[in-house]
Specification:
Layout: E1 3-6, H1 10-21, E2 26-30, E3 34-36, H2 41-46, E4 53-55, H3 56-59, E5 65-68, E6 71-74, E7 78-81, E8 86-88, E9 91-94, H4 130-142, E10 147-151, H5 155-166, E11 171-175, H6 182-193, E12 197-200, E13 215-219, H7 228-231, E14 242-244, E15 249-250, E16 253-258, E17 263-265, H8 277-295, E18 309-315, E19 318-324, E20 330-336, H9 337-356, H10 371-376
The structure holds flavin-adenine dinucleotide.
C-alpha cells in the first residue's frame, strides 16, 4: 500500500511531489484536475485575472497517482469518497486547506437577491475559494457602480481592497480591530491614499445590514476549515482544525498526518505559525520527510519553521514586503511600492517552482523556543 495525500493545494502537492521525488509510492486525492493559486484569488474577484488555475499535469510529479474525488470521511486505513469508492492507505496526509463554505444555519440562505450561496450572512460574498471569487466577480460585473464594503482588514481584506481600487471600484474597508502591526498600518495608509475609505474599530453586523442595491458586501473576516477531520472523529480544535504533534502526526492515530491551513500543531515550536502558503509548503514537505524517515526506521525530526518575510499585494503593481524574524515579528525593513510589488509577484511565481521541485525544497529554521523548557528545568 501507499501514502495517500488528501487535498491538491500548497501543502498536499508539496507532500506528494516530495514523496515521489524520493521514490516513495504516493497517491493524491483531490477534487479538481487543477491547482488553485489561492494567493491570487483577490485578483480573480477584481477581474484582473480570468482564473487562478494551474493544470495538475503541469505541477504534479508524473510518478504521483492522481485520483479525482471528494473525500467525505477518513477512517483508520481507508478514505471514503463521495462517489462511493474507497481509497485504502498505509499512511494518510490530510491537507484539505481552509476554503470551506460556512455550514447552513438559521441566518444563512443560498442564492437569493445577493446571489451568494456560500456567504456567512445572506448578503456577504467571500474570496477564500475559487467559486467564491468567481461569484464575487460576476456580482461586481453586474453592478459596476456599486460601492464595495470589505469587512475584515486582515491580509485577505487588504489585498482584495487593493485589487478592487486598482480596478476602479469605490471601496470601503471596515475592521472591528485597530491595526497593531506597523506593516498593517502602512497597508491601510497606502490604501487610504488611493481613495479607499478605511474604518477601523468599527463592528459591522453583516447579518443585519439593510439591503441596498448600491453596495456589495464582502466577508473577509476569516478562513474556514472543512469539517472532514471533525466528522471523521479525529481530534480537532474549536475551529475544526486537525490537531497534530511536533511530527505533524495525529495523537492516537500514528498513520495519519496533517499539513497546511487545516491543521493545528500542538507544540511550543509552532506557536508563531500563521495560516499561509508560506506555512503550508514547508508543512507539506515535512510531512513527507516524516513518512520517509519512518520508512527508513529513523525517528522523525520535529517540524521547525522560521519566517523571513510577509508579502502583500496592494494592487496596481504595488506591494509591501515586510521582513520578519523567524517568529514572524517585524524587523525594521520593508520593501514597498513597485519594488515591493515586483518581489511579491516573484515570490508568487516561485511557489509553483518550489512545489514542482519539491525534492530540493528547504526552509529556514524556527525561533529558538525549543530550548526554553530545557533551560527552565
Ligand atoms: C485571497 C487570498 C490571498 C492570499 N494571499 C496569501 C499570500 O499572499 N501569502 C500566503 O502565504 N498566503 C496567502 N493566502 C493564504 C493561502 O492561500 C493559504 O494559506 C493556502 O492556500 C493554504 O494551503 P493548503 O494546502 O493548506 O490549502 P489549499 O491551498 O486550500 O488546498 C486545499 C486543497 O484540498 C482540496 N480539498 C478540500 N477538501 C477536500 C476533500 N474533502 N476531498 C478532496 N479534496 C479536498 C481543495 O480542493 C484544495 O485543492 C491567501 C488566501 C486568500 C484566500
Amino acid at each position: 500500500m501507499t501514502t495517500v495525500v488528501l487535498g491538491g493545494g500548497y501543502a498536499g502537492i508539496m507532500a506528494a511531489n516530495r514523496l515521489a521525488a524520493r521514490g516513495a509510492p504516493v497517491q493524491l486525492v483531490t477534487t479538481r484536475p487543477w491547482f488553485v493559486e489561492r494567493i491570487r484569488l483577490h485578483t480573480v474577484a477584481s477581474g484582473a485575472r480570468v482564473d487562478a488555475r494551474v493544470p495538475l499535469d503541469e505541477l504534479l510529479d508524473e510518478r504521483v497517482e492522481l485520483t479525482l474525488g471528494t473525500a467525505v470521511r477518513a477512517g483508520s486505513d481507508v478514505l471514503e469518497l463521495e462517489s462511493g469508492g474507497d481509497v485504502p492507505f498505509e499512511t494518510l496526509v490530510l491537507a484539505v486547506g481552509s476554503g470551506a463554505s460556512p455550514a447552513p444555519d438559521a441566518t444563512w440562505r443560498s442564492g437569493g437577491a445577493w446571489g451568494s450561496g456560500a456567504a456567512m450572512s445572506p448578503r456577504a460574498f467571500r474570496v477564500t475559494e475559487e467559486d467564491d471569487a468567481a461569484r464575487l466577480r460576476a456580482e461586481l460585473e453586474a453592478r459596476p457602480d456599486a460601492r464595495v464594503t470589505v469587512v475584515g482588514a486582515g491580509l485577505t481584506g487588504i489585498e482584495l481592497a487593493g485589487a478592487l481600487t486598482a480596478a476602479g471600484r469605490s471601496v470601503r474597508l471596515v475592521s472591528a480591530h485597530e491595526p497593531r502591526r506597523a506593516a498593517t498600518k502602512a497597508h491601510l495608509a497606502e490604501l487610504a491614499r488611493r481613495g479607499v475609505t478605511i474604518e477601523t474599530g468599527v463592528h459591522l453586523d453583516v447579518e443585519h445590514l439593510e439591503d441596498t442595491h448600491d453596495e456589495v458586501l464582502v466577508d473577509a473576516t476569516g478562513l474556514l476549515v472543512p469539517p472532514l477531520a471533525h466528522e471523521s472523529g479525529l481530534p480537532t480544535d474549536e475551529h475544526g482544525r486537525l490537531i497534530v504533534d511536533e511530527t505533524l502526526s495525529v495523537p492516537g492515530h500514528p498513520r495519519i498526518l496533517g499539513a497546511g491551513d487545516a491543521v493545528l500543531v500542538r507544540d511550543p515550536r509552532a506557536r508563531h505559525l500563521r495560516a499561509a502558503c508560506a506555512t503550508a509548503l514547508p508543512m507539506g514537505a515535512h510531512a513527507a520527510d516524516v513518512i520517509l524517515a519512518r520508512a527508513d526506521g529513523q525517528d522523525p525530526a520535529p517540524f521547525d519553521l522560521g519566517y523571513l518575510m510577509q508579502c502583500v499585494d496592494l494592487g496596481n503593481g504595488r506591494g509591501h514586503v515586510q521582513l520578519v524574524r523567524p517568529d514572524d515579528s517585524e524587523r525594521a525593513i520593508a520593501l514597498t511600492g513597485r519594488a515591493g510589488g515586483l518581489l511579491k509577484e516573484t515570490v508568487c511565481r516561485l511557489t509553483l517552482q518550489w512545489m514542482a521541485r519539491a525534492g530540493r525544497y528547504s526552509w529556514p529554521a524556527g525561533p529558538a523556543v525549543a530550548a526554553a523548557p530545557a533551560l527552565a528545568r
